[in-house]
């Protein structure tokens, strides 16, 4: 029986693979550069809610512009339903809002090192939920790569949090208001990421449309929270754009660009790949701090670099083998 020739990859599949890599690299650079740009351009007295809401508005406008340009906006407008929007985007947006609240509670009751280490478990939960919701299996090598990535993320977190001390709270408070909230937040992060991937890959929902919907839902949640928050009082007293300068617009728009990229990476590559991007971005931040601020990378950062590179290489090289059905 003659040997069968391996199937050639279609130009469309190669083009999509190139685009996924481009989106991932751009998102890595955006995540990595965001802290440096924000620190340089946003004054301390800028109200956080005002910058976040403006970023969400910028994301909505950008996504609508792209959809109008590629001709999908009219089709989406005709087929859009409130139930579909709430199912595909409303649920993940609400989960992310709850996750952020839990992280804020946890951060106040844990030292930075413990918080950062536990927060990295979201990579594991993302892989777990993509398996349950999308039946996306991981090979043994890929599971090993995920553990390498988590170790690298923990090392990077140790480097970041080594200068911050403990919070000085009692053991019960640490458990119930520190450890449990951050672990629940990690579970929610993995679930929301898998739901977004399901909506885009299975339900075939446009990543741009999901960006618009999630930004609107997230903004409404944030506006509701301002009624009884210090930021809400500050906006009433000083105005929405208090402390803003022309430079403040740069990190806000840059962050909005990152939000669009997150949707594209999750849609085309999945939530697990996004985890690799976020950890890789920590290395980019360390490099940029060295270049622009003269702050050398910590030993933890240098040790984690080969771990991140190895984990990405292994994860890409050893995908889960799909068994062909015998006829």
From TrEMBL:
Main location group: membrane
Keyword Nucleotide-binding belongs to the record: no
One Pfam family linked to the record: Nuc_sug_transp
Recorded GO MF terms: pyrimidine nucleotide-sugar transmembrane transporter activity
Membrane topology listed for this record: Multi-pass membrane protein
Transmembrane regions listed in the UniProt entry: 80-97, 117-134, 143-162, 174-196, 208-227, 239-263, 275-291, 297-315
Name of the protein: CMP-sialic acid transporter 5
């Amino acid at each position: 029986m003659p040997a069968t020739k391996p199937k050639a990859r279609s130009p469309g599949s190669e083009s999509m693979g190139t685009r996924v890599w481009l989106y991932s690299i751009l998102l890595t650079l955006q995540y990595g550069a965001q802290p440096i740009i924000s620190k340089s351009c946003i004054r301390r007295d800028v109200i956080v809610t005002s910058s976040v809401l403006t970023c969400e508005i910028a994301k909505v406008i950008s996504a609508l512009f792209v959809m109008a340009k590629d001709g999908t906006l009219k089709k989406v407008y005709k087929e859009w339903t409130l139930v579909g929007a709430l199912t595909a985007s409303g649920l993940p947006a609400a989960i992310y809002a709850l996750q952020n609240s839990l992280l804020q509670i946890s951060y106040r009751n844990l030292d930075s090192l413990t918080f950062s280490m536990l927060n990295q478990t979201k990579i594991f939960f993302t892989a777990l939920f993509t398996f349950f919701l999308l039946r996306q299996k991981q090979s043994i090598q890929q599971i090993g790569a995920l553990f390498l990535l988590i170790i690298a993320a923990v090392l990077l977190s140790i480097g970041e949090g080594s200068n911050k001390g403990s919070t000085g709270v009692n053991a019960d408070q640490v458990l119930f208001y520190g450890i449990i909230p951050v672990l629940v937040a990690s579970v929610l992060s993995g679930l929301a990421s898998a739901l977004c991937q399901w909506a885009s890959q299975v339900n075939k929902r446009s990543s741009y449309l999901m960006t618009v919907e999630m930004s609107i839902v997230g903004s409404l949640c944030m506006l509701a929270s301002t009624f009884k928050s210090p930021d809400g009082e500050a906006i009433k007293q000083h105005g929405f754009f208090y402390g803003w300068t022309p430079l403040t617009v740069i990190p806000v728009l840059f962050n909005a660009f990152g939000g669009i990229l997150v949707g594209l990476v999750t849609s085309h590559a999945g939530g697990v790949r996004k985890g690799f991007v976020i950890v890789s971005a920590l290395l980019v931040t360390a490099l940029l701090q060295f270049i622009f601020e003269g702050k050398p990378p910590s030993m933890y950062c240098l040790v984690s670099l080969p771990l991140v590179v190895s984990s990405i290489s292994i994860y890409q090289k050893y995908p889960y083998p799909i068994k062909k059905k015998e006829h």
